[in-house]
Write a structure and sequence with these properties.
about 210 residues; about 35% helix; three-stranded parallel β-sheet
Length: about 210
């Protein structure tokens, strides 16, 4: 699974432990997800292309770096992906935003699409897909399929937690897509949940059951 990038920064690991605790309240869970997403975002976007332009500082003129090419596209896998979307927009306010709505059929664990809206010119944009959990990876693979079908060529995926089964599935289906995560957990249970995990990220984020 050479595509898997585990970001082991101490701040990320500490905040993730707080999120795992079942006693962590909804407000704190949202805040911690935002903070970890910001930290993961720095790593996941560290290779964005740059160009230079002339800038007049208070002291002199210089050639200074800025982002090059088309604006980054951020694609949230609904609904839980929205918890990672807003902090990434704080990092890159000019990013274009798309949404892929998928839910997991509880019987088959296969993704069912109910919504898709993507930015244009994906062939010329770096694309970052976000979803807190990479469990079976069925939804993640389907979402990558969608953005690639829309023309995306530079695709990356960011999640909070990954299961070995999901990481392997993504690497097999899309070996060109790097996956950035805070942790690789032990396994999936019979219902497709990550163990030890942190429960259902969407339910904990939005206070639903």
């Amino acid at each position: 699974m050479s595509t898997l990038k585990i970001v082991e920064h101490p701040l990320i690991q500490h905040k993730l432990t707080l999120m795992r605790d079942k006693a962590c309240p909804t407000e704190a869970f949202r805040r911690l997800l935002r903070e970890i997403s910001l930290l993961l975002g720095y790593e996941a976007l560290r290779d964005l292309p740059l160009r230079t332009r002339t800038v007049e500082t208070p002291l002199m003129e210089m050639e200074a770096p800025e982002l090059a090419g088309k604006k980054l596209a951020l694609v949230s896998i609904l609904r839980a992906g929205n918890g990672m979307l807003d902090p990434l927009l704080e990092l890159v306010p000019s990013a274009r935003v798309g949404f892929v709505g998928l839910y997991r059929d509880p019987a088959t664990l296969q993704p069912v699409e109910y919504y898709c809206k993507l930015p244009g010119d994906l062939d010329a944009r770096p694309v970052m897909l976000v979803d807190p959990m990479l469990a079976t990876a069925n939804s993640a693979v389907a979402a990558v399929d969608k953005v690639k079908a829309a023309g995306a060529r530079d695709v990356r995926f960011m999640c909070l937690l990954a299961a070995p089964e999901g990481a392997a599935r993504m690497a097999e289906a899309h070996p060109d897509v790097p996956v950035f995560t805070a942790a690789l957990d032990a396994r999936l249970n019979d219902h497709g949940y990550i163990l030890p995990g942190l429960g259902d990220a969407g339910d904990r984020m939005f206070g639903t059951k």
